[in-house]
C-alpha cells in the first residue's frame, strides 16, 4: 500500500512522490506524538501524584488540561490556518509541542507541569485541527482515501500504544522521560516538515474573534461539564458550565450566519454529504467512547481480571483498526465511501451487540472475538467516512472541514465517557447498560449513514 501512495501518474495533483514520502513522515510523527500524549500520562498519574506531593484528584488535571485545551482550540486553529498557511501552523504547533514537552520533563512542581501541559495541548490542537486537510493537498485526489486510511492507522496506534508505552517507560526510567522522549522525535518531525510540507499563500483578512471566543467556551465548557458530570463531581458548577456552553453554541451559530468572515463558513454545511458525515462521525465516536471507558470496568469488576490482562483484552480493537484502516481507505478511493462506512457501522453494531452478552463467566476468547469484530467494523467505517467528509468540500474549505472533524471526534468521545460515568455514578444500571447506550448510538449512526449513501453516489458521478 505504501508504495502505491508514492507512485506518480500524469495529471496528478498534490506533491511529487519523493516529497509525499517526507511530508507523510512529518505528518505521522507529529500526529503520533499528539495522540500518544493524550493517553500516555494516564498510567503515570499515581506516580506523578506521589512525586509532586499532590492528591490523586489533583493529578487527574494533568490529563484533563490537555484534553480541555485541545478541544477548545480546534475550530479556531482550523480558521487561523487559512490566514497563516497550513504548513506554518503545523510547524508552529510542532515547535510549541516540542518545547512544551521539554518543559514538562524539567517540571518539578505541579503548577509548572500543568502550565506546560497546556502549552503542549496548544501545539497538539494546531496539528490535529488541520491534519486531514494537509493530506488533501499532499496526496492526489485519487489516493485521498488511502492517505486518510493511513492517518486512521496512526491514530489507532496512538490509542493502542499509549498506556503500554507509558508503562514501559516508567518501568525503565523516571516519569520525566514520558515527555522527554518527544524532544528528539519532535525535532525530526520539524526538520521533515520544514523540508517537505506544501507551502501556501496566506489569505488576508481578520479572524472572527467573537466567533473564536464563543467556540472556545462552547467546546472547552462542554468537555469540562461532561467530564465533571461523568465523575459525579461539581453538579451545580457542571450544569452552569453546560448552560453557558449551550448559550455560546446559539451565539456561535448566529455569529457565523452574520459575520463577514465567519470562523466556520456555513457553506460547509450547505453540502449535505459533509453534514451527514460529521453527524455520523459524532455518534460513532460517542459509541467508541462508551466502549473504551466501559469495557475496562467490565473486565476488572465483572470478570475479575487484572489491570494488565484488561489492557491485553482491550488491544484487539485498536490493533484490528490498524490493519483494516488502510484497506478501507483504499476501498474508498475506488467505491462509494458512504456505502463502505455503512457496512463498517453494521459490523460495529454487531460487535457492540455481542459485547452486551459478556458476563462473569465469559472466557478470554469470548472477549477477543467480540472486540476484534468491533475493530473490524470501526476500521471499515472511519477512513471512508473521513474521506467523505474532507473530500466533499472544496480545497479552500478543507482546513475548516478538518477542524470540524477533530471537534466532533473530541466531543463524541467526551460525551461517551460522561454517559458511562453518569450510569455508574447515579446507579442507573449496570455496565451492560452503558454498552446498550453505545449500541443505540451506533444504530443512529448507521441509519443516517444509509440515508446519505445515495447522496455520496451522486457526488461520485459528478
From TrEMBL:
PROSITE patterns: MFS
Listed name of the protein: MFS transporter
A Pfam match: MFS_1
Organism for this UniProt entry: Salinicola socius
Main location: membrane
Compartments, record wording: Membrane
Membrane spanning residue stretches: 21-40, 60-80, 89-108, 114-135, 147-169, 175-197, 209-229, 235-254, 274-299, 305-327, 339-358, 418-451
Xref: InterPro entries: MFS, MFS_dom, MFS_trans_sf
Coiled-coil residue windows: none
PANTHER family, A to Z: MAJOR FACILITATOR SUPERFAMILY MULTIDRUG TRANSPORTER MFSC
Recorded GO CC terms: membrane
One annotated GO molecular function: transmembrane transporter activity
UniProtKB keywords: Membrane, Transmembrane, Transmembrane helix, Transport
Membrane topology listed for this record: Multi-pass membrane protein
Residue span(s) of domain Major facilitator superfamily (MFS) profile: 23-457
UniProt cross-references to Gene3D superfamilies, sorted A to Z: MFS general substrate transporter like domains, Multidrug resistance protein D
